[in-house]
Amino acid sequence: MTDYLRKEPQTSSMKARVEQQLGRASRSPIGAWFRDIDRVLLLIALLLIAIGLVAVAAASPASAERYSDASHHIPPMFYFWRQVLWVTLSIPVMLVVSMLPIKAARRLAIVGAAAFLVMLAAVPFIGVEVNGAHRWLGVGIAQFQPSEFLKPFFIVTIAWILSFRAKDEHLPVTVITLGMTAIVGVLLMLQPDFGQTMVFGLVWLILVLLSGVSPKMLALLGVMGLGGVVAAYFFYGTARARIDSFLFPDAAGNAADTYQMDMAHDVLTAGGITGRGPGAGTVKFRLPEAHTDYIFAVVGEEFGLIACAVIAILFFALVTRVFVRLLDEQDAFRVLAAAGLASQFGVQAMINIAVNIGIAPSKGMTLPFISYGGSSMIALSIGMGLLLAFTRRNPYLSRSSYKTGWKA
């Protein structure tokens, strides 16, 4: 009893110190950040990262066995330990970016968008080829995918340009951002990367709709989008092959193209509702890209469809949380930037899950925070850090104190 009484004041004082450092009374930068940050959004991001580590651990043996050969043996947990390294680097990056003031975060995004757009333009000429695609720059462990880093920076830059509509509705911001997105789309198609092109295009469309667009312009954008899909089918061989294999899987020559989708369906449903258990999956060993594009299917085999539903719900909760938090936000730039970044996570997750369950053709799209990948994890953490920065809210500022009308 005496020892307990001696420890209780120490525990109380420790608790008081934590409250003093992070509580409302704290004037330190970290205390201010902890007050202003959306802790629910941060928790969702950390949960997705934690689930991703478990998923990569489940998929790592299958991918290690597939990519090992007589001259090069890959340890079963190789990809898992590499992912642990990337997560260890990425979480501090996310937290540091989330602490940036709004103006600093915007400047970072604009400069980053310009720099990685130049790198993206260089990929078709000096990029590293992997599985027939030129999407990476660098050598060895220093390889990175410029399009992954460009996404969050480009989205914030587009949001900044569109936010000027609040000052002058006659500014041609829609045309300007359409041209910028088209340039990125052309550069991506040269790699080729049809999946990333869809992400950029869909997020741009969401931002344009949120910024306000006339019915005539909306109809024109619909026609242009349909025309782009038709043009891709007739003039872009990769897109035509994947669309044909998806729509006509039984046609001659298409059976081989549907192997990944068929295997993903088999792996996804092999575990039933509750899964076979951690490490007990066997069908995953026949699945290509088990640790990246088709990791959602591996989760289904080992942890069941319930676990897959949890992942989908978390992404839905992330997007919903952001849009609900923006309901009373009056700064046009912050609304568009945060909505665009949240849409990026939602669109990319939706495309990956759709491919894994067989309702969309294969696109080589990873599942955010879940799939293995170094540059992808760091780029996603930068995007999440920007999202946390733009959704920060002063707890002492009441809703009634906001000025009416958007301000750019």
From TrEMBL:
A Gene Ontology BP annotation from the UniProt entry: regulation of cell shape
Compartments (UniProt record): Membrane
Enzyme Commission designation: 2.4.99.28
Catalyzed reactions: [GlcNAc-(1->4)-Mur2Ac(oyl-L-Ala-gamma-D-Glu-L-Lys-D-Ala-D-Ala)](n)-di-trans,octa-cis-undecaprenyl diphosphate + beta-D-GlcNAc-(1->4)-Mur2Ac(oyl-L-Ala-gamma-D-Glu-L-Lys-D-Ala-D-Ala)-di-trans,octa-cis-undecaprenyl diphosphate = [GlcNAc-(1->4)-Mur2Ac(oyl-L-Ala-gamma-D-Glu-L-Lys-D-Ala-D-Ala)](n+1)-di-trans,octa-cis-undecaprenyl diphosphate + di-trans,octa-cis-undecaprenyl diphosphate + H(+)
Coiled-coil annotated spans: none
Superkingdom per UniProt: Bacteria
Name used for this protein in its record: Probable peptidoglycan glycosyltransferase FtsW
Organism: Stakelama sediminis
